[in-house]
């Protein structure tokens, strides 16, 4: 395919990641960052793979009319079969602002499965929140918990969609409690748990983390000041 400064950057990033991608595939992982603009020449642009979802996000400025189709064409050739969803989050509060055509929006809102370290998780390109349902940069933490949780009791605070808790349960934890203030996050966590053959039943607590810690410690809530 014809090259350009943008496709050259994308190709360089993909080539540099080939050993990592092969390692991740051996670990039964098909979710990883393909392009990190801050360190690879285009600050504010990230491109992540979650199974068959290609999630393109901008945080500084929206893609122009040429860059978006160029990105889609590059990955259609390099990694065929991925569904590309673009979220522009370059305005205040990092909210997704760009509309999508109806047929693309339907694809973006479809729950999809992907794998990490042998565990299965759900992802959507678009949902009521703004962040992907699993943060890829927390993989090292999930791997560590998976390796060291056996026999332990694990309190997963600010649990989001409970990736740490699910890794702990798979790693043999005796008890796992996930705490998050958003019921919608915990719902995804419950769905994630059901996708996996976990040896224990996880607990999900809808609460502010600090209030939950006080309650679990038997301290009680502070009085009014």
Primary descriptors:
three-stranded parallel sheet; 8 helices; single chain; 225 residues; four-stranded mixed sheet; 9 strands; Rossmann fold; Transcription Regulator spoIIAA; globular; 2 domains; alpha/beta
Short structural summary:
This protein is of the alpha/beta class and 225 residues long. The protein is 37% helix and 21% strand. Helix 1 runs parallel beside helix 3 (67-78) and helix 5 runs parallel beside helix 6.
CATH topology of the largest domain: Transcription Regulator spoIIAA
Question: Which class do the helix and strand fractions yield?
Answer: alpha/beta
H/E topology pattern: HEHEEHEHEEHEHEHEH
User: N- to C-terminal separation?
Assistant: 67 Å
Tally the beta strands: 9
Would you state the CATH class of the largest domain? Alpha Beta
List unreliable stretches of 5+ residues. none
Helix content: 25-40%
Rg, nearest Å: 19 Å
CATH structural architecture of the largest domain = 2-Layer Sandwich
Considering the protein shown, what is the CATH homologous superfamily of the largest domain? RNA methyltransferase domain (HRMD) like
Strands ordered across the widest β-sheet: 1-2-3-4
User: How many helix segments?
Assistant: 8
Shape: globular
Average pLDDT rating: 95
Number of structural units classed as domains: 2
Share of residues in strands: 15-25%
The largest pleated sheet is described as: 4 strands, mixed
What does this protein look like?
With 225 residues, the protein is an alpha/beta fold. It folds into 2 domains: 5-113, RNA methyltransferase domain (HRMD) like (Transcription Regulator spoIIAA); 136-216, Rossmann fold. 37% of the residues lie in helices and 21% in strands. The protein contains 8 helices and 9 strands. The chain has helices at residues 5-26, 37-40, 67-78, 102-108, 139-148, 163-170, 183-195, 209-216; strands at 31-36, 45-50, 53-58, 83-88, 112-116, 119-123, 153-156, 175-180, 203-206. A 4-stranded mixed sheet has the order 1-2-3-4. Strands 7-8-9 form a 3-stranded parallel sheet, covered by helices on one side. Helix 5 (139-148) runs parallel beside helix 6 (163-170). It is globular and about 65 Å long. The protein starts with a helix and ends in a 9-residue tail after the last helix.
């Amino acid at each position: 395919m014809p090259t350009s400064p943008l496709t050259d950057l994308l190709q360089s990033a993909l080539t540099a990641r080939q050993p990592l991608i092969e390692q991740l595939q051996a670990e039964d992982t098909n979710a990883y960052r393909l392009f990190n603009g801050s360190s690879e020449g285009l600050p504010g642009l990230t491109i992540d793979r979650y199974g068959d979802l290609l999630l393109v996000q901008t945080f500084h400025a929206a893609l122009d009319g040429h860059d978006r189709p160029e990105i889609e064409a590059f990955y259609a050739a390099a990694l065929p079969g991925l569904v590309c969803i673009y979220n522009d989050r370059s305005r205040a509060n990092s909210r997704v602002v760009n509309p999508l055509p109806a047929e693309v929006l339907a694809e973006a809102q479809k729950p999809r499965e992907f794998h990490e370290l042998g565990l299965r998780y759900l992802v959507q390109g678009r949902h009521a929140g703004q962040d992907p349902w699993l943060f890829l940069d927390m993989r090292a933490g999930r791997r560590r918990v998976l390796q060291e949780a056996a026999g332990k009791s694990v309190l997963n605070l600010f649990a989001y969609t409970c990736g740490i808790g699910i890794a702990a349960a798979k790693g043999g934890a005796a008890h796992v409690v996930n705490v998050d203030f958003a019921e919608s996050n915990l719902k995804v966590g419950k769905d994630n748990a059901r996708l996996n053959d976990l040896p224990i039943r996880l607990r999900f607590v809808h609460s502010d983390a600090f209030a939950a810690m006080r309650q679990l410690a038997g301290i009680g809530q502070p009085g009014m000041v």
